[in-house]
Amino acid sequence: MQPRDLARRRVFIAPIQLEVDLNAGYIDTVTYKPGSRSIVELRLVPVIPESGAIPAQSAVLRYDTRNTSLHFNVTPGMDFLGAQSYFFPPNGSVTVTISQM
């Protein structure tokens, strides 16, 4: 799956009512694996290729679920005021896993 918004920074996974929002860079790919504890995998990239934009050095990922019976854990990442903070390696990407607790 890929985000459908213009900036490619938001994704909503309907079966688990999970909304993910990225403040910089973009979400390149989303892999949804129903029935697995590592339920969602996101590939975050610092800049859209050939966009001419300056690559992001870091990003903050926020997630929320409308399903109060589900709880999630995000790895890797540094917890920053209820969100996860990531630093992009030079010319690289970050893979984030959202697991069901």
Number of helices: 0
Helix amount, in percent? under 10%
Gross geometry: globular
User: Taking all residues together, what is the mean pLDDT?
Assistant: 85
- Are there runs of 5+ residues with pLDDT below 50, and where? none
Describe the strand arrangement of the main beta sheet, using strand numbers.
Answer: 1-2-5-8-7
Tell me the radius of gyration: 13 Å
Number of strands: 9
Order of helices and strands: EEEEEEEEE
Amino- and carboxy-terminal Cα gap = 23 Å
Largest sheet, if any?
5 strands, antiparallel
Task: Quickly give the structural class.
Answer: mainly beta
- This entry's quaternary arrangement is single chain
Strand content: over 45%
Question: How many structurally independent domains?
Answer: 1
Plain-language structure description:
The chain is mainly beta and 101 residues long. The protein has one domain (10-100). Helix content is 0%, strand content 50%. The protein has strands spanning 10-13, 18-22, 26-32, 38-45, 58-65, 72-75, 78-80, 83-87, 94-100. The strands form two sheets. It has a five-stranded antiparallel beta sheet, with no helix packed on it. It is globular. The two termini are 23 Å apart.
List its salient traits.
50% strand, single chain, mainly beta
Short structural summary:
Helix content is 0%, strand content 50%. The protein has 101 residues and is mostly beta strands.
Write the layout of secondary structure elements.
Elements: E1 10-13, E2 18-22, E3 26-32, E4 38-45, E5 58-65, E6 72-75, E7 78-80, E8 83-87, E9 94-100
Antiparallel strand pairs: 1-2, 2-5, 3-4, 4-9, 5-8, 6-9, 7-8
